[in-house]
Specification:
single chain
Amino acid sequence: MLDIAEIDRQHRELVNMFNRLNDAVKNHESRNDIYRLIDEVISYTRLHFATEEQLMVQSGFPEIESHKRMHEELIKDTLHLKDKLDYVGEDMFSDWFNHWPFGRVLAHIQYGDKQIEDHINRNDSGFSRGVVPDTLQTA
């Protein structure tokens, strides 16, 4: 059975991946390296969302469909990262990235995913406790 601690671990890894991607862009690493990091972010985001959705099913989270729609929107954002980078270049991409997709992911973790944790805690669904981080370090 999944637990909140696993979701928290994945959240931290996802934030670390976003930070690595942002650093790669700021440091003008090769476009191929940046594309590879984008692909890794997309892949890990999909894995994380699948894990989180499984936890929502197991816990009987009542807002699962609206939460899944949020996941779909965030995936759409990540699928456009390469196009955005190609269109605006590294400098503008870095500013945009920190304010839009990265900010949306952090808000989703801190507020959207907090609802799942609250549901589990209210219903004492037998899941081990972890906490959705109140604050996460960003670059």
